[in-house]
Write a structure and sequence with these properties.
7-stranded mixed β-sheet; 375 residues; alpha/beta; 43% helix
Length: 375
């Protein structure tokens, strides 16, 4: 198969995960964050190193949230003795392979990898496993013998985006033409996002143009959007499905440059600050908010549990399974997602501490913020 397939419904996964963690905690098997009762099991190794390989800097969350959160959680779980060795591939699969080799040479204890190219990374995963290093796929499912995978229900992400478009178009959906800006073909999540979106949109709207945007690059997305405008006609584009926020911003720029005075609904993903501000201003219709805190913290916990051979803790965190093209039944955690619009900014990214009102409502957006009660 070409993309990860979850093996449990979202509701069942959540209920089982919560119930198991509560049960394990109440029995004294799983430590609480403050250390728990260390007399109930052998002393755990804490002077450990987790390698973290992130794919790019265009997606703002990686540098701003994922790395610092994982670093802080590893330190917290190891009383400050554990470390994170970090590298960013800046959208280069070749650079990420070199960074993987450097992690192996440095003898890190585990590697969290968000692959630039899921297939190309497989030999590096095998090399790490041969060296006795645990490998955990983060956010995107790497091929090869990974120990675990943590991400979101990526087909659900596409469904949420597709439903947002249908809601925005309403009764005019059947006669509407939309443009799709999908993610990079090298990213296994792209197929899942697209599958989820098409499950909602196909045969209900006219997909006038669809592009797979290499390496998720906004400049490529903008060029593709310009081609779509030329082919379909500016006033004939009723909505734009953009798989993430960086490309959404690029699509909006292309529409503005083409002379759009009223922007069609544009979707996104990642809840980047500029995207949230565009939503406040009415330029971007929505984004998919995926809890960076939950994903990053749980990734750190999975890595530390694996290094420390805490099998019960590891199993309680990875109660889903997915398949990759090279491996079946990979222990996994799939974190829930939510559609972020101007109506729920306060109860999502602000409530979770991702941004403050001050971060969002800069002078440029002060009037728009006031209009939606965000002050």
């Amino acid at each position: 198969m070409n993309a990860p397939t979850p093996h449990r419904t979202a509701a069942a996964r959540l209920a089982l995960a919560v119930g198991s963690v509560l049960l394990l905690t109440s029995c004294g098997v799983v430590d609480a964050a403050d250390g728990g009762d260390s007399t109930q099991r052998p002393e755990k190794r804490e002077d450990l190193t987790v390698g973290l390989l992130l794919p790019d800097k265009e997606t703002k969350r990686f540098e701003k949230f994922d790395y610092p959160l994982i670093k802080a959680r590893v330190a917290d779980l190891t009383h400050g003795k554990g470390k994170v060795r970090y590298a960013n591939a800046e959208a280069s699969a070749k650079r990420q392979s070199t960074q993987f080799d450097q992690m192996i040479a440095a003898r890190v204890d585990a590697i969290l990898v968000d692959a630039v190219d899921a297939k190309a990374i497989a030999p590096d995963v095998r090399k790490a496993k041969e060296a006795g290093i645990h490998v955990i796929a983060y956010d995107r499912l790497a091929e090869g013998p990974v120990d675990a995978y943590i991400s979101h229900d990526n087909e659900l992400v596409g469904e949420v985006q597709g439903r947002a478009i249908m809601e925005a178009l309403g009764t005019e959906a059947e006669t509407s033409k939309i443009v799709m800006l999908n993610g990079s073909p090298a990213d296994p999540n792209t197929a899942r996002f697209k599958q989820g979106a098409l499950g909602v949109l196909q045969n209900k709207v006219s997909i006038a143009k669809s592009y797979d945007v290499q390496e998720w690059l906004p400049k490529v997305a903008e060029a593709d959007m310009e081609k779509a405008i030329a082919a379909v006609g500016l006033n004939n584009i009723a909505a734009v499905y953009s798989a993430n926020d960086g490309m959404a911003g690029a699509a909006i720029d292309a529409l503005k440059k083409a002379g759009a005075t009223t922007l069609p609904p544009v979707t996104g993903q990642d809840a980047d600050l500029p995207a949230v501000q565009r939503i406040v201003a009415g330029e971007q219709y929505m984004t998919v908010y995926k809890s960076f805190l939950e994903e990053a913290n749980n990734a750190a916990e999975i890595a530390v549990a694996k290094i420390q051979e805490q099998d019960i803790m590891f199993d309680s965190l990875t109660q889903d399974t997915v398949d990759s093209p090279t491996q079946d039944d990979i222990p996994s955690m799939l974190v829930p997602v939510v559609a972020l619009t101007k109506d729920n900014i306060r109860t999502t990214v602000i409530k979770d501490g991702v941004y403050t009102v001050k971060d969002i409502c800069t002078p440029e957006y002060a009037t728009d913020c006031a209009a939606i009660g965000l002050e």
